Each structure stands twice: as structure tokens, then as C-alpha cells.
Amino acid sequence: MTKTFVFDAYGTLFDVQSIGSATEEAFPGYGHYITQIWRMKQLEYSWLTTLMGRNEDFWTITLDALEYTLKTLGLKLPPQRLETLAATFNELSDYEDAETCLTQLATHRLAILSNGTKNMLTKLVGNSALNNHLHHILSVEESKVFKPDPRAYQLIIDRLAATREEVIFVSSNGFDIAGAKSFGFTVVRVERVSSEHLTRDLVNAAAVNFGPTEIFKAMRTQEEQLQLKPDFTIPNLASLPKLFSEPSVPIEGPEALDQSGN
Amino acid sequence: MTKTFVFDAYGTLFDVQSIGSATEEAFPGYGHYITQIWRMKQLEYSWLTTLMGRNEDFWTITLDALEYTLKTLGLKLPPQRLETLAATFNELSDYEDAETCLTQLATHRLAILSNGTKNMLTKLVGNSALNNHLHHILSVEESKVFKPDPRAYQLIIDRLAATREEVIFVSSNGFDIAGAKSFGFTVVRVERVSSEHLTRDLVNAAAVNFGPTEIFKAMRTQEEQLQLKPDFTIPNLASLPKLFSEPSVPIEGPEALDQSGN
């Protein structure tokens, strides 16, 4: 049976940490500070502007967050180079397991719902190997709010003519997992950094140098304590097709799927 | 002329960093990791729950953020001790300039608007020297949203029967400064960490150990790039009364005050 899989883009299909080489090239020695503060601030600004009811687009927010980051670190770029550096968000690497995952799910309906503007997403997907594998690319731009505001997830219902029950939403981002779950989707969390590994890394780092990368991982890769648990947690995208393959014997099918009537 | 001053509590009148001794006592060697991640996550959860339209109170959020923090670091506390540690948010030190500031402004109407629950704020203020200096303590609890949602600031209008034009809102928190400005108040930013000092500290730290305290300062003490600038920036609360003292010669009065008709 055909299902509707909707993927988050930044951090789920595409590796946000791949901006690291561009930030390091622009400011040698400061790359990982810029990368982490920029990404954390970018999301923070998406939440704050939505809360204040101000309709900013994600490109403006990305530039503003970069400007904040550089200013905080006492660094400067002329406007043109600021835009060039921000444009690395349109050239992120896709995770190595993303294309295989989408290929194996090809008989299903495959979409992206992302905070990025249409323009950013067109470039991002167009620059990648995932271009031919996605049937729909939805930007929250038309909803005028960012995730996890429910109006952002409503776009999936409206544009794909899907019911909440049939959507399988896939994300690595805690706020997005909580938002999609709160909206009523079946949610798969891609846990790229397991809590065991992270804790070990953090405890080791605490003894040596607990830097911005550790803080980022601590803040943004773990399952949130928001009473909105994902239905499934998988270590990477390669595990997704298996999880939703048609069971040859019914009793082997994943329980939550059976419950939701798929 | 009597003015209405409304202060943010956590980080403005009260020093959130004063939870540091309790977190360090509970987990020696981990105090500053817990302090920073906990506070950053606490605010993150206040924004996310508001965006999702879920009505959580700040005490629950404070506990959830602490639980997240400990779990991430591989640490554990039984529920009772978790509550005891979280209760340090009700015993924060007031900044040493806070009482003098309020004393000097005593002829004006003085209030708090805080994310904290009524219960948390009653304890926090009751435990402090500021207790007798504040005329109103407003919790966003009744608005069922957190700052910077405009419905939180609306409480000032509704409960104090004040107009937007007459309110002087005082905060150190970037999201709060932006929110109050977006709502239409005259906003004073208390810049406890100047950008020059911060940049110098961060550059020095980058060469040695750029830890969670540096990330916290980089993320949460600087003026935001949100096109919502404060009307005034002062280095500490001691500078506030001077800024709003009646000018003996009209031309010496602060310009923005004259413009707003006070």
C-alpha cells in the first residue's frame, strides 16, 4: 500500500554540519564556533519571529543569524561575502544513506517539508543526488510560520491531500519530532547520535575540551523531554525502508503501523 | 511624573547563573555544563511548547529541561532531588544593583513580568531583598503562553491598566527585548556583558577552552539581529534611575522619552 513519507531537510536528509568547511575557510580557526552558534541561532530566530507574529523568511533569518554569530565573535564580512557564506545552506551534502533510502521507498509518495524558502530548497535539492527521488518539496514559506507551529505541518494536509493518519514524518530534529507528533503524524526519529555515544563523548570532552560542537550535540541531537515521543527511533535512514516494508507474515509488522490502520 | 517600569525577572533582576553552586554541589565537576544547558533548554522548551499551542507551566518546563540536561550528560537524580535542584530557581540571588535601582525609582509604579509561575515568583521575590520594592508581580501563567508571544506582554496592559506608550520595559534577555519592542513598549536593555568584553573573552577562550559558559554568553547575552532594537542600552541597573530622572533643564532629557511624551 502506498504511504506518504515526509522528510525534514536540514539535519535529516542534508547534513548541516557540512557548512563547516566553508565557515573554516572564511575564518580559519573559527569554523566550528561559527557553524554551531549560527545553526543554533538560526533555529532560535525561526522560533522567536514566529512567536512574535513577524513574518520573516528563512533566508533572511539565516543571514541575520550569521551576522549575529560573526559580530559576537568580533568577525566581519562585507554583505556580498555574507550572502555567499549563507548560500552554503543551499549546497549541503546529503547524508550518504539518504539516496538509497529514497530509492528503496520509490513506490511511495516522498516529500520534504522544510523551514527553508522555496528558493533555498530548489537549489539545495537541485544540487543534490536526491533531486529525482522526491515527488513534492514543501516550504513552510506559504504558511508564514516555522516549525513546530501546527500551521506549518498543515501544509502537508493541504498540499498533498493527505490525512494526518497516513503521513509518516521523518526527522532528526527534536523540535520537529515534537511538532509533528503534536500535530498527529506517525513520527520516525533518526537518531544519528545515540545517547550512549553522546554521553561518553561529553564525559570524555568534559575532561579535556568541551567546546561548541559538544554543546550543539548536547542541545540538539537528543530526544526531547516534551512528552511527545516519536513512534519509532532508527539509527540512520538506511533503516527506514525495512521498518515500513510490507510484512510477509502479519504478526511481524511493526505494531504502531498496524494500530494506525496502514 | 509617575511612570510604569516593568522588569523581567530571570537574568534581569535575578542572576540565573547563581544556580551554579547548587548544580556543582549536586554533580561535582559538571556544574557549569548543567547550568548552561539547563537554562538554554528551559527557554527553548518555553518557546517550543508555546509554538505547538501546548499549555505547559514554567515549573514543569524547568523540571523537563533539567531532566533533559542530566540525561544528556549521563547523570541521574531521584524525582525528589530533581525537584529540590529545580527549586534553586526560586532562590536566585538578586543582582547587587537591583535593590538600589528599585529604591531610587520608588515613586514610580514597579512591576515584574516573568515566565515563572505565580508560585515560583512568589517564592523567588519573597526570598529576596526586592520583596518590598515591587508593586505588582505578573506571571505569564494566566496568558497560557511564554514570552515573546504578544499575549504575554498584553497582561501588562490588562492587569496594570497601562497604555503601551507609558510602559518602560527592562530586560537583559535578547528574546524579551525583541518581544517587548515588537509589542510596542519603550525598551531598556541591560547589557551586563558588553560586546567588546565578550568578543575579547571568546577569542581568548578559543585559544584555550571554549566551554559551555562561553557558548551561553555568545548565544544569550548579546543584542539580537532581529530588527527590533532597544530604545536604550545601559550597562547595569544602577544606570536606570538616572536615565529616567526628570530633567532640570528640558534639553538634557533623554530624547526618546521626550518623543514618547513622558
UniProtKB/TrEMBL annotation, chains A, B:
Enzymatic reactions: an (S)-2-haloacid + H2O = a (2R)-2-hydroxycarboxylate + a halide anion + H(+)
Note the CDD domains from the entry.
HAD_L2-DEX
Task: Report the EC code(s) recorded for this entry.
Answer: 3.8.1.2
Enzymatic class: hydrolase
List the keywords (alphabetical): Hydrolase
Q: Which InterPro entries match?
A: 2-HAD, HAD-like_sf, HAD-SF_hydro_IA, HAD_sf, PGP-like_dom2, S-2-haloacid_dehalogenase
Task: Please explain the role this protein plays, according to its UniProt record.
Answer: Catalyzes the hydrolytic dehalogenation of small (S)-2-haloalkanoic acids to yield the corresponding (R)-2-hydroxyalkanoic acids.
Family classification: Belongs to the HAD-like hydrolase superfamily. S-2-haloalkanoic acid dehalogenase family.
Q: What is this protein called?
A: (S)-2-haloacid dehalogenase
